[in-house]
Amino acid sequence: MAIKQEEIHKLLKEGFPDADIEINDLAGDDNHYAAKIRSSQFKGKTRVQQHQMVYASLKGKMGNELHALALTTEEK
Amino acid sequence: MTNINEKIKDIINNNNVVLFMKGTPEMPQCGFSMTVSNILKKLNVKFSGIDVLADPEIRQGIKDFSNWPTVPQLYIKGEFIGGCDIAKEMYEKGELQKILKVNII
User: Fold this and answer.
1) Any signal peptide, and if so, which residues (chain A) (predicted)?
2) Which of A10, A68, B62, B99 is most buried (most C-beta within 10 Å)?
3) Cis peptide before B72 (omega within 30 of 0)
4) What is the interface pTM, i.e. ipTM, of the complex?
5) DSSP letters along B24-50, please?
C-alpha cells in the first residue's frame, strides 16, 4: 500500500505532458502526498472534472496503492 | 449495482446536504472526513452524514456513482461538490457558503 513519488510524477507527466507538477510526501511514508498541477488541459473544466482527470491519469491507483493525495489543480 | 445506484440517488435527492464519510459526524474515522464534517458544522449546516464503513455496498457504490475514487464526498442539492480538497478550497474562498446561501440551506 505505498507508491514512490517518482512513480506518481511519471504517471501525472504522461497524463499532462505540459504540466508543472509539484509533489510533496507529507508523512514520509510513500502513502500521503500533496500534488499541485498546473496544466493547460484544465482549461474550461470544473474543479471536479479537473480532479477526475488527475485520478484517471493515476490509472486506478488513487484509493488503492495511493491512500491520500491532496490535490490542487490550476489552469496554465 | 442498479439497486445501489437507486439507493444513493434516493439519499442525495432526499437530503439537502449529504456527506459520505468514514465514521459519523460525531466520530469521524478519518482525518479527511473530519475536515469536511467540521467545515459543515462550523457553517451551522444541517447535513446527513452517511458512514460508508457501515455499508460496504455504499462504500464501493458511491465511488462508482460519482466517478470519484475516495471518500469523503460532499453532495449539495443532489449535486456532487467534491472531496476534501475541493470542499476545503471552496470554504476558504467563500464559494461553499455562497452555494449554501443560494440554496437557502
Assistant:
1) none
2) B62
3) yes
4) 0.87
5) -SSSBSSHHHHHHHHHHHHTT---EEE
Chain B residues inside the 8 Å CB shell of A59: none
Report the C-alpha dihedral over residues A3, B59, B93, B39, rounded to 10 degrees.
Answer: -110
Touching check for A47 and chain B: CB below 8 Å? yes
For residue A41, give Cα distances in angstroms to A33, A49, A61, B66: 22, 11, 21, 21
- pTM for the model stands at 0.92
- Which structural domains are found in chain A, ordered by start? 5-75 (3.30.300.90)
Each of the 105 residues of chain B gets a pLDDT tens digit; together they read: 569 999 999 999 999 999 999 999 999 999 999 999 999 999 999 999 999 999 999 999 999 999 999 999 999 999 999 999 999 999 999 999 999 999 887
